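Predict the structure of Sugar-binding protein.
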Amino acid sequence: MSTLHGSAHRRAVAVVAAAGALALVVGCGGSDESVTGGGKKDGKVTITMGMYGVMGFEETGLLEQYEKENPDVDIQAEVAGDEQTYYTALQTRLAGGKGLKDIQGIEIGRAKEIVDTRADTFADFADVADTDHFLPWKQSQITTEDGKVLGLGTDIGPMAVCYRKDYFEQAGLPTDREEVAKLWEGDWTKYVEAGRTFKKNFKGDDVAYMDAASGLFNAMVYGYPEQYYNAEGELIHDSNPAVKEAWNLAADAAEDGLSAKLRQFQPGWDPGLANGTFATAVCPAWMLAHISEKAGEANKGKWDIAKAPKGANWGGSFFGVIEKSPVKEEAKKLVAWLTAPEQQAHIFKELGAVPSSQQALELPEVKNLTSEYFDDAPIGQIFGEAAQEIPDGQVLGRKDGTIKDTISQGLTLIEQQGTARDEAWETTVERIEKAVG
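Done. Here is the predicted structure for Sugar-binding protein.
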């Protein structure tokens, strides 16, 4: 679990793991009188927020800063340990019409479902001033066909490959980040081939080349404009060549024993980082904070970052405001401030989450940023360039997040149970069809 910084004001902050988050669905954050839990009393405005993982707003002190600059505002943030648990609870609250927060985080994989099914529940940001600084494709992902803007973007997820320099040296592979990038330049197949070399030559304790085959799958599939749905909104997960290509290469890696069999953000992955049980992880920019925290000081400087074979966007989030919030306008003002270029640049500097603001991407403090933890890697340059390589017009689908999670589980069948890839694929397709109707 992440350690959250306190506030000068009294703040209710719940950091919850899988079981705890679901218990909160009924027992916290709302009443029969209030849809959300925020409100106004005695000249004081209380704004509640629902977030997940390490989004950076609490951890970098931005919420506390806003409270200091606006002494009549008290922000109460509830943070779930992982997004899947968070979204399950959010869906229940949306269905029940209460227990919501005034501000709710929305992960990119859920954005289309929110746009298609919950547009009336969320407030419109189209009338908020000074919000034209975002990457155009970012805001289009949270905008309805009739132009209602259901939220503002936080970060995006351009990708790189995080790798252990000490392990690469033991395997006779280059350790310089530019030379490492050349190992797999332009082709994820080369990344897997480097893994075979690593496995053959590594001298030392049992260390896997990569954390999980599902990480490789996601990196590949998000490099294409279409993944699980086409532009007409039709499911294509079982016919899209990009999905099958990514599945087969990820299955190759799993069958060749290149994976530590540790799904990212699932039990075992954090100890794997701390104990150094794998040498590489496909890492969207937002993952850097988690890796540095969980790998810990003992591994500082051992990790480095190299350019990914191809550009892709994996992840990123938005903040939406509930339409029936009693502090709707105050919450919209807070969201606009949190997602402004200066605040996005601050979070990138502190945690490595790449801004979705084009203006922020052009700031010197973003372009020139390095990461001390990752051996002074020029993350501003690496992820800034990767952001420009993200394919335009990426198609989002209503159940993207569900399909991604189900495919990750399918690859785990190959990794952990030795299931044949074709059988695992058939099982995965059946599960998807059941989950998405």
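The radius of gyration is 21 Å.
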